[in-house]
Design a protein that fits this description.
This protein has twelve helices and no strands. It is an all-alpha fold. Helix 1 (2-29) packs antiparallel against helix 2, helix 7 runs antiparallel to helix 8 and helix 8 packs antiparallel against helix 9 (154-163). The chain starts with a helix and ends in a 9-residue tail after the last helix.
């Protein structure tokens, strides 16, 4: 009987917690950031290690332009967990306040973390991408692969170059990936075909054909004959 009561209580607690999480998300999606903030603060009190709840709290503070509160929260979490990604969050908090010098300072500190531990790039670059800081994300990936030759971010970099409109470098990275990992060829073809369809850019098509021709001359084993 005690076991049944325990299981029922556990199930009920999980149900209530799930409902509270959904409520917080609904507040956030509707732009009711003050209510969302209170809800996420209650959620993180129960799960202090939950990074998603913390991120939402920071997002709420920033949407409410409570930058000092946001900075305090980020610094407290950084001092506690020493997560390098939080340096990007600090930098972005300053960027929202138009303080480019301080933003750059923290972005560069994040990149320095990659110099010490190249695998930190996974988290750091992801945050740069989420903040649409494309140049910094590219720097992070480039720095990591220079330090650790076993790392490969051709696809991620290709997509970032595509976002910034640098077709030549995007094509270069996709083709590099096709040679490095032929098993990804079909996915890369789909990416390039979609880009060609969405953009209908004659210059892009010509750039792709030129790059393929050069690659074909360098390596007769290329599989891109349909282009």
């Amino acid at each position: 009987m005690k076991k049944i009561i325990f299981l029922f209580s556990l199930f009920f607690s999980m149900f209530v917690f799930s409902q509270n999480e959904q409520l917080a998300q609904n507040y956030f999606d509707k732009g009711e950031f003050e209510k969302a903030l209170i809800s996420y603060q209650e959620l993180i009190a129960a799960q202090p290690f939950n990074g998603y709840y913390f991120q939402r709290i920071v997002d709420c503070y920033q949407q409410l332009k409570q930058y000092e509160a946001s900075e305090k929260s980020i610094l407290e979490r950084y001092n506690k967990f020493k997560q390098a990604t939080l340096l990007v969050e600090l930098g972005y908090n300053y960027q929202l306040q138009k303080d480019e010098n301080k933003a750059k300072k923290y972005y560069e500190q994040a990149l320095d973390k990659i110099k010490k531990i190249p695998t930190e790039v996974y988290g750091i670059a992801a945050v740069f991408e989420r903040k649409v800081l494309i140049e910094y994300a590219l720097q992070a990936y480039q720095l990591a692969i220079e330090l650790d030759k076993n790392l490969n971010f051709n696809v991620q970099m290709a997509l970032l170059y595509g976002q910034k409109g640098d077709s030549d470098k995007m094509i270069e990275k996709f083709l590099e990936e096709s040679y490095t990992n032929p098993q990804n060829l079909f996915a890369i073809q789909n990416q390039l075909s979609r880009f060609m369809t969405e953009n209908s850019d004659v210059n892009f098509n010509n750039a792709l054909k030129k790059a393929l021709l050069i690659r074909t001359q360098q390596n007769q084993d290329i599989f891109w004959n349909q282009y």
